[in-house]
Amino acid sequence: MNEVRLRAVVLDWAGTIVDFGSRAPVAAIQCVFAAAGVPLTVAEVRESMGLAKKAHIRSILEIPRVRDAWALQHGSPPSEAALEQLYAEFIPSQIQVLANHSQLIPGTAEAIARMRSRGLKIGTTTGYNRAMLDYLLARAAAQGFVPDSALCPDDVPAGRPLPWMCYLTAIRLEAYPLDAFVKIGDTPADIEEGRNAGMWAIGVTRTGNEAGVTQAEWAQLSGGDREELLNSARRRLERAGAHYTAPSVAECDWILDAIDARLATGERP
Length: 269
Known about the structure:
alpha/beta; Rossmann fold; 49% helix; DNA polymerase, domain 1; six-stranded parallel beta sheet
């Protein structure tokens, strides 16, 4: 049997490739809930980040505090019709917000170039819908990044944490086995998606949802506050099943080396 080596990397978008701090989804969701008379905290929005956006909104509506506030404001608990209305309003709001949150995270383009130099194919998955993803793809292409595959929940029966986007990515990339794939993302849903697909999983700490700070905010933090944020992010991603964590995509090279070494000895995710 031929030795198994890494074949592909599957990257998340917000907080991993673009949008340092994963601020765009928070801003858009807070906007539509505030318009409905039920303001959300950042923590409430971030709790289920990474899910397909309709599922994300549904999960927020199931939070007891939010459900009670909705019932108080609207006279009854949130219904399926309310969910559909919120999602319909969310789509244009999110695309509008993305205009200011689609810059590649520093070092990401160079890191992806290094991945390609290893012979790896590059796929992406996201919780955004197709319109949002297409917007990001256009903005990323203008910055020099074009993935080999880019999928969203619209392309499969269901989004994260189910593995369908990862499976379809493997088909689109014509790469196999899934043991030789690495999923990199910044939310527990990302990690669970990769693990459910039988992939190695790397959690991103500094640039993503779990830290939740912009690059400018990160620069202003003390060393102690930075360490506390990174440790909290690392613990949550490891609880979700991350094999490794890294501050950013740009700092994953040593992990890819380590995974290749483990594959060479016959170890699997």
